[in-house]
Write the structure tokens for this entry.
Amino acid sequence: MAPSPIDPTPAEVAQRCQVVETLLDYIQEDRRILLPQFDPSFSIPSEQFALQSVGIEANAFGGTVGDFRYQFEGEEDLLHLFITRVDGGRLAPEDAQPVVTFLLPNLPQALLWLKPGEFSQHFYFGHDELL
């Protein structure tokens, strides 16, 4: 079955633009792109899948589109993008790919490294690919 296309709302597009703009500012200023401070009140009750809770809090490097949550973090020259389902359900790599395409439409797929998971999908690429 083919992954569902992303049909972002105007608010989701605006949020993506703000996140990417902030990423670019941090990269150009050589600043670390950190995960939000952990707030247990936002946590999905799951000790086994802690990454499902990262980025639930509003923060400059993450957001949502459709049924998905995305979060960027990185140091030095590597960016990490992870994607989960808002409902905490299982997520296949091919279902996360349209989210990557929505977020980074000009990034060639060949420059992404995927570390698949069961409930979260993790993509890595160089900072300089965004500049």
User: Anything to note?
Assistant: The first strand starts at residue 62 and ends at 65. The longest helix spans residues 10-28. The chain has a mean pLDDT of 86. The helical segments are 10-28, 93-103.
